[in-house]
Specification:
Bound molecules: adenosine-5'-triphosphate, magnesium ion
Largest sheet: 8 strands, mixed
Strand content: 15-25%
Number of domains: 2
CATH class of the largest domain: Alpha Beta
Strand order of the largest sheet: 2-3-1-4-8-7-5-6
CATH architecture of the largest domain: 3-Layer(aba) Sandwich
Amino acid sequence: MASRVCLVHYHEIGLKGKNRARFERILMDNIKAALAAFSVATITRISGHILVSFSVAGQAEQAFPIIGTVPGVARVSLAYHTNRDPHEYCEAARKALNEFGDFRSFKVVARRSNTDYELTSMDLNRQVGEYLCEAFPDKKVLMKGCDAQVHVLVVQGSVYVYARSERGVGGLPQGSAGKVVTLLSSGIDSPVATWLLARRGAVPVPIHFSGRPQTADTSEYLCQDIIEALRPGVQIGRLYVVPFGDCQREISLKCPSDLRVIMYRRIMYSVAERIARLEGAKALVTGESLGQVASQTLENIMAVNEVVDIPVFRPLIGSDKQEIIARAEQIGTYDISTEVAPDCCTLFMPRRPETHAKLDEVHEAWEMIDHEAMIQHLVDTVEYIDFPAPTYKPPRCLRERHSELEVRYCIRAHRDDSSESLEVE
Ligand code: ATP
Ligand code: MG
C-alpha cells in the first residue's frame, strides 16, 4: 500500500560544493522545526531531495504547504511512496493525477537514480503512461505544454510518484549565513525586509523602538504578532524592545524640530549597532525604500548612516510600495501591519521634517543632546521577549530562556558582562 510523503527539492544548496552537506543538514533541521506540530517519522536525504514521512495518516497533505514556506525549499511535492511493484506505482500515478485538479493534458516524467532496475526511464514513461491513458481516456498526452506532469522517481527499492507540486520560497536555509539585527517597526516594510534576509539564510534578530512610556505598547504586541505570522517557516528567537518615548521627548525639546526624525534615527541605529555587537550580528537591516517618505531621501539616509560602522542592508531600497505590499500579503504580515498603533514613528513628529538634511546642521543638532549617555541608557534598559526557535542562539550574557512571551526582561543585571567582546555561542 502506498504511503504519503513530502519530497523537498532544493536548488541553490546544490551549488554550494563542499558546503552542501552542511546546508542540507541545516535545511533538514529547519524543516523539522517548522513541522514541530506534526508527527514526523523521518527526514532523510534521497538522491538530491529531502524526504519527509509522517507517522499519522493525513499529515503529509497538511504539512505540504508549510514546507514550501521554509527558506531553502525551491519546490515541494506531495508524493506517494510505493515499492517497485508496477501495479503499485501505476495505481499511485493514477491517484496522483486524480488529485491534481483540473487538467486536459498530461505527461509522465520518470527518472531512475540507479540503474539496477530493469526498466529504463523511457520504459517507465511508457508503462505508466499507458496505465494512465486507460484510466483517463478523455485526457490527452502532450509532451510540450501539458497541464499536469506525473513524476515517477525510482530510488533503490522505492518509487515516489507525484503530480501535485508547488514552488517553495527558495533562497538558503535560515542559519546558514549568520545573524543580522533588523530594525522592526510594526509597519509594512520592515517585516518584509526581515523576511528577505531570513530567506537568504540569515538569522534575523529584530529590535523594535516603542513610544512607551509616552504611548501605549500596542506596537510591541503587533511586532510579536508579526513574528508569530512568519512562523513556522521563518523562526525568530528573540525580539528586543526599546522603550524610546522619553528619549524622543528629550530630543523634541532640545533639537530643531525639522531634524528630530533624523536624530531619532541616529539614536535607533546606534542602539541597534550595540545590540548587534552583543549578539555577534554582522549587519543591520531596515525596511527603507528610496524616497518613500521624507526621511528616506539619499541625504537623510546618509545623515543617519554615518553614526554606525556596521553594514546596513536595505533590501527594499529599489522596491515600489505595491511590490512590498504584495510580498507582505504573501508572508502574512500585511493585515497586522495595517492595524493602527501609536509607536515612536508617530510620536513628537515635526510638522515639516527635513527632507534633504545638511550634515553640518545635523552634527550641530546631534551635539545638543547627550547622545552617548542616551544610547548607553537605552542599551542598558533594553527588554527582550523570547520565542522558540532552534536557529537562534542568544548571546552568553543574555541567555535566560523564558516561556512567558509577555514577561519582559531587563538586561541591567547583566551590564557587567556586556562588553563588546562578548562571545556568542
Ligand atoms: P516600515 O513600514 O518598516 O515602518 P516606513 O515606510 O514606515 O517603514 P520609516 O517609518 O521611515 O518607513 O522607517 C524606515 C525604517 O526604519 C523601517 O523600515 C524600519 O526598519 C526602521 N524603523 C522605523 N521605525 C522603527 C521602530 N519604531 N522600531 C524599529 N525600527 C524602526
Ligand atoms: Mg514606519
